[in-house]
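Form P-L/3: holo structure prediction, ligand flavin mononucleotide.
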Amino acid sequence: MTSEQTSAALQPTLRDYESQARHMLSADRAAYFFGGAADELTLEVNQKAFSAIELLPRVLRDVRGGSTELTLLGQPMAHPVLVAPVAYQKLVHPDGEVATAIGAAAQDTAMVLSAQSSIDAAEVRAASAGCGWFQLYWGPSRAANLDLVQRMAELGFTAIVLTVDAPVQGVRDRETRTGFRLPVEVSAVNLANMPVPRFAPLEQGESILFDRIADVAPGWADVEWLCRNSPLPVIVKGIVHPGDARQAVEAGASAIIVSNHGGRVLDTMPATITLLPAIVRAIDGAVPVLMDGGVRRGTDVLKALALGASAVLVGRPVIAGLTVAGAAGVSHVLRLLRDELEIAMMLTGCRTLDDITPDIIYRPATI
Ligand SMILES: Cc1cc2nc3c(=O)[nH]c(=O)nc-3n(C[C@H](O)[C@H](O)[C@H](O)COP(=O)(O)O)c2cc1C
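OUTPUT (holo model):
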């Protein structure tokens, strides 16, 4: 072991977890979990944009009695780092989503269970209440979507996260080149009884995308309908445009998540942290704004909150923790982020999350 490896083993960072996980997984699974769409520019810029933001701390402020607590959708939370929905977690660990839920609960946070979870939602809920929100991809039947939402409400989930940025899968070259395929033993078990669209054969000149998939893709009327009929609050995930943010609020969303799906769908979008301020301005406090994409350090969490996010979600770092050490790895990754956030708060003179304002972001013109 080199001295660098020894210190990584003693005090790993989220990036150490990711490089260890990449080593442990087969090339195709590493591509699925850690790759992005096309040239992976959005995947890369999500992290780079955080690095480009500089902090300007204030010193000698009284931070006694400080904390990272918040209340989100009426729920008290110990800190603002949530677990993003990520599909098919049994591909990296036999306990899959159950281990992630246990790791999240150990750090007092909410996990969003993916619609494409590889473990039954009832089993995940039974193992841990840490799994609090359920993510939905809109299916072709309104009634079947609502049945699924009602089933999740009965299981004790407290919110629905409706992901709207992926009516079709992105161009995922890295996955294709490594030959990634779901093995038969891993599937989206919660969707087993959902109707699957049966597409009529294509006529001459017709397109599978525009003439078949577009027929079953959701629109704003569906979002509005779901918000009206869902027994649980609906959070819309995958918003990057201020106009769409306003429309989501008009449709009845209880919160929005600024997300570019971690760079897995449309490549060459800007980083979410770059887009966040305009969306916060557009929403003007009407509902909480969350964000995800590229959060790898406590200072990234601090920057997102300074720019108006109420909380952040993390995807790949949690998968890295799960790959390396199951529930304990998930818990450790979340703990590292929280510890780093607390240190960053103290070093910038922020006692509570409300004290984290745009003033701590360095802008040459303002000093
Ligand atoms: C392998 C993988 C699978 C994902 N599956 C889903 C999913 O099922 N539903 C969803 O809404 N988002 C999904 N996402 C997107 C994440 O919820 C989140 O937006 C993204 O991972 C955040 O970026 P980060 O990985 O840099 O933290 C997935 C992301 C990854 C990496």
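COMMENT: Residues 57 and 348 are 4 Å apart (CA to CA).
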